[in-house]
Amino acid sequence: MTGPVAKKDEPAMRVRYSPLGQQFAEVDEILADVRELVASGDFTLGKPVAEFEAMFAALIGTRHAIGVGSGTDALKLSLKALDIGPQDEVITCANTFCATAGAINEVGARPVFIDCDDTFCMDVDRLEAAITPRTKALMPVHLTGEVADMPRIMEIAEAHGLPVVEDGCQSLLGELDGRKVGSWGIAAGFSMHPLKIINVWGDAGIVVTGDDEMNRKLRLLRNHGLKSRDEMEILGYNSRLDSVQAVVGKWVLRRAEDIVEKRIANAAYYDAAFREVPEVRLPPRRNRTRNVYLLYMIFAEDRDRLYQYCLNHGVEAKIHYPIPLYQQEALSHLGYGAGDFPVTDRHARETISFPVDQHLRRAEQDYVIETVRDFYSGKRS
Ligand SMILES: *Cc1c(COP(=O)(O)O)cnc(C)c1O
Q1: pLDDT in tens, 2-36
Q2: Could you give the CA distance from residue 102 to residue 28 in angstroms, rounded to a whole number?
Q3: Over residues 85-108, mean pLDDT
Q4: What is the dihedral of CA 280, 283, 287, 290, to 10 degrees?
Q5: Other C-beta atoms within 10 Å of 295: how many?
Q6: Using a 6 Å CB cutoff, which residues line ligand 1?
Q7: 98, 170, 318: which to mutate for ligand 1, most atoms within 8 A of CB?
Q8: Which of 100, 232, 252, 344 is least enclosed, having the fewest CB within 10 Å?
Q9: For the chain, how big is the Rg over CA atoms in Å?
């Protein structure tokens, strides 16, 4: 026999989950900008941060954008700017990423969870019942690239006089009724962590707000509460957006719209194929929203075995998240118990995520689809 022989048990293809290796293939362009920064010595705040903030505010269409150290800090500092602290409750979702609850905890407040629906966002029908005299803010999460029902959430928030801080970390450029994530609440936090829609070379986050006083407070809070070099107006934090990351961020942000368009096209391609697989169920696809698909997450019968089959066949699928946040050991003091949030629990059992990023090739998507089909046809026969 001539030519390479496929090793037995070696999958026909390997489809990686994360595209980080491909994202910065043109690194020399960015390094030239970094070299310029190094020569300027402008390492804290300064020009690149201001430029990145202006670009970000323009992209979302908000008055202000304030660069901070991480997405978690974007949420934490927003709550802090609203004077939320010990004894206060902040309502959020039982199925979110742990950082949402972490940010609420960091200001000393108590996260109060409500269940989600099959869009993976807050089930707004449950919101009103969760509001107590201690509730001081709402933190809806736009999970997976989807968009929470913000018009209804804002209506309830206004009726109760509660500020809303949107967790937009997973849904940059998501829209509902033509309005962008981040444009409803008094503030919204975004992340540029390597696994988000846009990513830099480490941790970074940004807050958007249309409120001048929030903007002023957030700028103080991220920089020790200093209003000038020598005057500290309030107690704050060291949570500046790193200037090097701002340089990288400017480069990536110009590509944000293209990145999102590719993800949406990839998701539509999967959707068309998976609609024909009876054991798979797609989440509702709503015309009102622009889902930006940070995660391509679907419901699958016999999920655990499908997941293992995918891994065995070279498809790096993921589960977001196998242990629901509200059941995590770190939050046991909140007093929630297994079964308190049945939709979240069902999602933990039934969902699976496949790569959907801008660098994914059609041949890789076809292989993912074929692998899922093969798993179920093997079971049927
Ligand atoms: C990633 C993420 C965060 C936190 O962002 P970091 O930049 O990692 O701190 C917060 N909320 C959600 C929903 C996230 O996915």
Answers
A1: 445 555 678 999 999 999 888 888 899 999 999 99
A2: 36
A3: 98
A4: -110
A5: 23
A6: 70-72, 96-97, 99-100, 141, 167, 169-170, 191, 193, 203, 205
A7: 170
A8: 232
A9: 22
Is the CB of residue 353 less than 8 Å from the CB of residue 127? no
Ligand 1 atom 14, closest CA: 169
Model pTM?
0.96
Which pLDDT score is estimated for 2?
Answer: 47
The CA 210 to ligand 1 mean position distance, Å, reads 21
Q: Give dist(CA 194, CA 196) in Å, integer.
A: 6
Mutate to test the pocket of ligand 1, among 92, 169, 207, 241 (most ligand atoms within 8 A of CB): 169
Q: Which domains does the chain have, with CATH numbers?
A: 28-253 (3.40.640.10), 256-380 (3.90.1150.10)
Helix, strand or coil for residue 293?
coil
For residues 8-22, one letter each, b for 16 or more C-beta atoms within 10 angstroms of the residue's C-beta and e for the rest, the string is eeebeeebbbeeeee
Largest pairwise CA distance in the chain: 78
pLDDT at 262 over 90: yes
Nearest alpha-carbon partner for 196 in 124, 266, 144: 144
From 193, 198, 207, the mutation candidate for ligand 1 (largest count of ligand atoms within 8 A of CB) is: 193
Mean pLDDT of the chain: 96
* 368 pLDDT above the threshold of 60: yes
